[in-house]
Amino acid sequence: xxxxxxxxxxxxxxxxxxxxxxxxxxxxxxxxxxxxxxxxxxxxxxxxxxxxxxxxxxxxxxxxxxxxxxxxxxxxxxxxxxxxxxxxxxxxxxxxxxxxxxxxxxxxxxxxxxxxxxx
Amino acid sequence: xxxxxxxxxxxxxxxxxxxxxxxxxxxxxxxxxxxxxxxxxxxxxxxxxxxxxxxxxxxxxxxxxxxxxxxxxxxxxxxxxxxxxxxxxxxxxxxxxxxxxxxxxxxxxxx
Lengths: 119, 111
Fold this sequence. Notes:
- In chain A, 0% of the residues lie in helices and 49% in strands.
- Chain A is mainly beta.
- Chain A is globular and about 40 Å long.
- Chain A starts with a strand and ends with a strand.
- By secondary structure, chain B is mainly β.
- Chain B has no helices and nine strands.
- Chain B has strands at 9-12, 18-23, 36-40, 47-50, 64-69, 72-77, 86-94, 99-102, 106-110.
- In chain B, the strands form two sheets. In chain B, strands 1, 3, 4, 7, 8 and 9 form a six-stranded mixed β-sheet that branches.
- Chain B starts with 8 loop residues before the first strand and ends with a strand.
- Classes of the chains: A mainly beta, B mainly beta.
- Chain A binds chain B through residues 35, 37, 44-47, 50, 59, 61-62, 95, 103-112, and chain B through 2, 33-34, 36, 38, 44-48, 51-52, 57, 89, 91-93, 97-105.
């Protein structure tokens, strides 16, 4: 059974940093592309970042480009999101999600971790 | 303002059929990119409902179906049940933005 468990969320001041992690199990992690998708309180879904199975191809949404860094460790079956220069508008539940190469949908999702940016 | 446009809410009585529309443009749905649908029950993570315009993952009841035409797509739910009350999101890819994009979401209320 595919399992994705996010961690690392919490309260951080504007301008601060936070590192999110996603622990994967139940599938061959290196064979799947991975994404971060966020949802602000009471709002819709927003794609944040993508990383290929090998980690060599990375994309970011314009809203986080230059501030967030996605990475993965296939030996440890883990996905990370380093978030710097955080803003109030980054407040959201952050989900990690799998994607199969050659498709465009997010198949399996974690339960999410809440990031709150506030002074 | 979401790239894909969905109605904020729809409603229907148990047993009825409802549809949720998702309108895009020539840089996403109209460009031939697939449309996918997600169901988000209150307080839970989104769940894949329909992928590749009209395909259901295993375990999704055949009461749910999807279609796509031109720059729009639709999700249909037949035999409405109380447990279908949730938020529904469409998703595609946009070539102008070089990003995966979502609709704003539609809240389904079962009367």
